[in-house]
Each structure stands twice: as structure tokens, then as C-alpha cells.
């Protein structure tokens, strides 16, 4: 897709950082404000009539504006939207950190406290957006970024995740999103989805954080839909005996085949994960620089000052100052 090196005489494309069925995400530099941004260009389905293209363009604009109204610390902020050479684009906050899949690969599995710390932050985001009739529908490890200070950001709400109040159905732009690894049974069957679809995906992430492996795996991806629909998930304590029984029950409920058997809302998940959050730390330790991603930090040192990694800390030391 040739969109040129500079979009809207403002956003200079630096490199591609992600792609999928719905579009491509680029790292770009906003030359007006001097900051890096994530710029997402949207694919246009082939064979559409002019009326269909116009309707999709209108929907894209309406839903991008809805995304821009989402306000939560765990969501990447939407900055701008527009069209360049027939390609629609969305400009968002560029979030740096490590994605959850990479974190799990590094650690093999997360501690109970780390899992709870990441899980409650995701649940907080979902609770906020679900209250605004937004369903993510593609929650997965690659869409969850853990910053160095431990703050979790849920990415890629995109422009295809909004409940249309006129039809009570999800509007769509481009391909249906959803990763098989975290896809709920109702998505596999192409039936109605709602906020409980995201809760199933959260259950998949909690399972993977705790045991290091997806809920369902098979050498052939073609077999996964059948497993999702028919095979019960393995209880966590069979895979990780130190898992608290209440946590195992929560994850099994989140992974229920029938959405009605899952927790009622993300707030309930948040509440049930909260007992495993780390205790508040010594305030003096909040001033200690660190070098690694720490999902526990937002709970041990909430609103801690100078929340930055050791290299940034070192750059601010005055000559002769001792660490």
C-alpha cells in the first residue's frame, strides 16, 4: 500500500510495526508536535461499490470518534483520523514496553501476584469500555503491553468493536477480528457476541500467564475451532498445583462454553482477582530505579514519583551525586 513517506503533511512514516487482516500499524513521527505515534491504515475490502465504500468510510469516522472518547489509563489515546490517497488512517498514542506474550515467553509462567496485577488492569479497562457499549473482540497477548513501570495498556480497540445502538449488534469494518488462541465459542460459531466474549479472552490470558501455554493447542490450527467448541479446559491445578482453588474456579468460569455461565461483568473479575494483588510497599522503595518490567509496581508504589528505569534515572543525576 503506497501511502507516501509523509501523511497529511504531518506524520512521517518510520517503519511498519504490525499488520493484520484489518490493516497495518506504522511507527510514525508527528512533525508538528515532535513525538512518535502509532498510525494505523485500514484495509479496504475488494469488490465494494461506491455506495458501500462511502458507507464504510462514514462508519469508520463515526467509530473512530467513539474510540477517541474512551478515557482510561489502560487505553492508548486516539489523536487523529483522516484519509490519504484513498486510505483511511487512525493516529494513536505509541506505547512502548513488552507485550504479554513475550513476557510469558521470558518468564515461562508468571507468579500469582503478577498474574493478578496484569489481570486486574485488563479487567479495569474492559469494565470501562463495556460500560460504553464497546467490545474488544480481539483481546490477546500481543494486544496487551506492559510498560517498564508496570502499567498495562490494552491496544487495538480499532474501529470495529462498537455496539450499534440501532441494531444491538456489533458493527464491522473489514474482516472479523479474533485470534483463535483467545477466541470464544460464540465467535467460532459466528453468533452474537457481547462483553462476555472479552471475558472469555481474559480467561485465556489468565490461564496462559499461570501455566505458560494456551488453553487449547494443536499442531494443526484447523483443529482449534473444534477444541474450543467441544473440549473442556484443563483445570489449572492439574497443570500448576500451587494455583489457589478460588483462582482456578474463576478461570474455569471465564472459559465456560456458554456465555451465561461466565462472570456477569469485568468488575466481578476485578474483585475476584484483587486478593492476590501485592501489598503496598515501603514508600522509600518507590524512589529506587529499576531495570526490568515490573507488573507489581503500580500496586506496590501507586503514583510513585520518578517512575522510570535505571538508565533514565542515571541521566538526571547531578555531577558528584551519589546513587
UniProtKB/TrEMBL annotation:
<feature type="binding site">
    <location>
        <position position="40"/>
    </location>
    <ligand>
        <name>ATP</name>
    </ligand>
</feature>
<dbReference type="GO" id="GO:0005524">
    <property type="term" value="F:ATP binding"/>
</dbReference>
<dbReference type="InterPro" id="IPR000719">
    <property type="entry name" value="Prot_kinase_dom"/>
</dbReference>
<dbReference type="GO" id="GO:0004674">
    <property type="term" value="F:protein serine/threonine kinase activity"/>
</dbReference>
<dbReference type="Pfam" id="PF00069">
    <property type="entry name" value="Pkinase"/>
</dbReference>
<protein>
    <recommendedName>
        <fullName>non-specific serine/threonine protein kinase</fullName>
        <ecNumber>2.7.11.1</ecNumber>
    </recommendedName>
</protein>
<feature type="domain" description="Protein kinase">
    <location>
        <begin position="11"/>
        <end position="277"/>
    </location>
</feature>
<keyword id="KW-0067">ATP-binding</keyword>
<keyword id="KW-0418">Kinase</keyword>
<keyword id="KW-0547">Nucleotide-binding</keyword>
<dbReference type="InterPro" id="IPR017441">
    <property type="entry name" value="Protein_kinase_ATP_BS"/>
</dbReference>
<dbReference type="InterPro" id="IPR008271">
    <property type="entry name" value="Ser/Thr_kinase_AS"/>
</dbReference>
<feature type="region of interest" description="Disordered">
    <location>
        <begin position="295"/>
        <end position="323"/>
    </location>
</feature>
<keyword id="KW-0808">Transferase</keyword>
<keyword id="KW-0723">Serine/threonine-protein kinase</keyword>
<dbReference type="InterPro" id="IPR011009">
    <property type="entry name" value="Kinase-like_dom_sf"/>
</dbReference>
Amino acid at each position: 500500500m503506497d501511502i507516501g513517506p509523509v501523511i497529511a503533511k504531518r506524520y512521517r512514516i518510520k517503519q511498519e510495526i504490525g499488520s493484520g487482516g484489518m490493516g497495518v500499524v506504522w511507527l510514525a513521527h508527528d512533525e508538528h508536535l515532535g513525538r512518535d505515534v502509532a498510525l494505523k491504515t485500514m484495509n479496504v475490502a475488494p469488490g465494494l461499490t461506491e455506495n458501500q465504500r462511502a458507507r464504510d468510510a462514514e462508519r469508520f469516522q463515526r467509530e473512530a470518534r467513539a474510540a477517541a472518547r474512551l478515557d482510561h489509563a489502560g487505553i492508548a489515546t486516539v489523536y487523529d483520523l483522516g484519509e490519504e490517497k484513498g486510505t483511511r488512517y487512525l493516529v494513536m498514542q505509541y506505547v512502548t514496553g513488552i507485550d504479554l506474550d513475550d513476557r510469558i515467553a521470558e518468564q515461562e509462567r508468571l507468579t500469582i501476584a503478577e498474574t493478578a496485577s496484569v489481570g486486574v488492569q485488563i479487567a479495569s479497562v474492559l469494565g470501562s469500555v463495556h460500560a460504553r457499549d464497546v467490545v474488544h473482540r480481539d483481546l490477546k497477548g500481543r494486544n496487551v503491553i506492559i510498560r517498564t513501570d508496570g502499567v498495562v495498556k490494552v491496544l487495538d480497540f480499532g474501529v470495529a468493536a462498537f455496539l450499534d445502538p440501532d441494531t444491538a449488534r456489533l458493527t464491522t469494518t473489514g474482516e472479523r477480528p479474533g485470534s483463535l488462541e483467545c477466541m470464544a465459542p460464540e465467535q467460532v460459531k459466528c453468533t452474537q457476541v457481547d462483553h462476555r466474549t472479552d471475558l472469555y479472552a481474559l480467561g485465556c490470558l489468565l490461564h496462559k500467564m499461570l501455566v505458560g501455554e494456551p488453553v487449547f493447542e494443536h499442531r494443526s490450527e484447523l483443529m482449534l475451532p473444534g477444541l474450543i467448541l467441544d473440549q473442556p479446559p484443563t483445570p489449572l491445578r492439574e497443570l500448576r498445583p500451587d494455583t489457589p482453588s478460588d483462582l482456578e474456579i474463576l478461570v474455569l468460569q471465564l472459559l465456560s462454553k456458554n456465555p451465561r455461565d461466565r462472570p456477569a461483568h469485568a468488575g466481578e473479575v476485578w474483585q475476584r482477582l484483587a486478593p492476590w494483588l501485592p501489598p503496598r510497599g515501603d514508600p522509600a522503595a518507590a524512589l529506587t530505579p529499576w531495570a526490568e518490567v515490573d507488573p507489581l509496581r503500580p500496586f506496590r508504589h501507586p503514583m510513585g514519583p520518578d517512575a522510570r528505569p535505571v538508565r533514565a534515572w542515571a541521566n538526571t543525576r547531578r555531577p558528584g551525586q551519589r546513587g
